[in-house]
Amino acid sequence: MQASRFLARRAPLAALALAALCGAVAAQSQRPTYKLAYIDPLSGPFANVGELMLLHTQYAVDDINARGGLPGGVQMQLLRFDSKLSAQESQSALQAAIDQGAQAIVTGGSGSSVVAALVTAVNRWNQRNPGRELLVLNHSSIDPDLTGKACSFWHFQTEANTAMKMKAIANYIKKTPAIQKMYLLNQDYAHGRQWASYGRQMVGLARPDIQFVGEALHPIGRVKDFAPYVANIRQSGADSVITGNWGTDMNLLLKAAGDAGYNLRYFNHSAGSIPGTVLAVSQAKAGELTWVAEWHPGEAGTPKVDALAKAYKARTGQDFLAPRIEMTPRLLAAAIAKAGSTDSPKVARALEDLSYDSVVGPVRMRAEDHQLLLPQVVNTIAPVDGKAVKVGWEGTHYGFRTDAVYTGNELAQGTECKMARP
Q: Least C-beta-crowded within 10 Å: which of 96, 108, 268, 359?
């Protein structure tokens, strides 16, 4: 992740805020507990992404406990494990979580390939250990295969998947005639390749007149200078880029294009929710990043999220960015209450077709593939103008402009899931 002075200032604050939140857990250690294991990157280039997601998760867990916990007064306890952005390390963390009595895993920030490996390992464990099954709650890895060909009874996705997000972007591009020539630049892993594929398919269908003028993949988290990639994009004549880059890879791409004075439009699934991205856009002084999320800071007409963001900031000292992550433990708690049990198979069945009145509006966990249907907002990081963008973010004069809003049902896709249920 971008090693900027901004993030350097944020890191100690995040650590202090997290320590304060975790203090409540120690005081509850003598009560009956339901152990939820967090497995995501807490070191390496994407550590600040993992810390952000952990802080959101811990806030929800502490709030659930402060309101009486789960039925019977059972308290949630959040265990922390570092995935190191590695499938192998994640599976080692999974075994450690099992050894410590975890009943559910919350993950998603390690990338879809890592989450897929975790789901496969959990499937194997659950088959071999009836009565000790685990659930996997995935808040950010959005490979459609996780709720499609590779769907699992034990896995639940609380973020809109890649196809849903790209459909939202394609709908927006359909109404944006200025976009004429598109380049595809993506990280070379399963989801990066999928984002490119869906981009070509869905945007091409929405706008048959658009020219796709080039395509490239690059190693994830390893490119230090994107200038050669930017040079190739410029040579292609593109005015826009479909990129699934996130974290350091997004910020360095923005920097390279800015250094070259190249004013591009970027279409992305979630990069704007990651700390440092708004700062990177403001520093580039060229280009616009359009992304998709269930909410963005400064969005009008969202009083429930605004109240939560205010309470979160007061408690943690940090900015609130991702309702779906904070919502994930609450969905689990709602399913446990519905099931009247913490038994994993019963909780999984209660999660199926669960409707929940969230801070972003009503959401529903689709039973056939365990995909949460939640609203998506297409929005662009842009300068504050007092009208469409009223508030700056990350200490900059840039914020978020709402471009379009779609319901989960409007973006819902068919599924190839053929789920085997115990």
A: 96
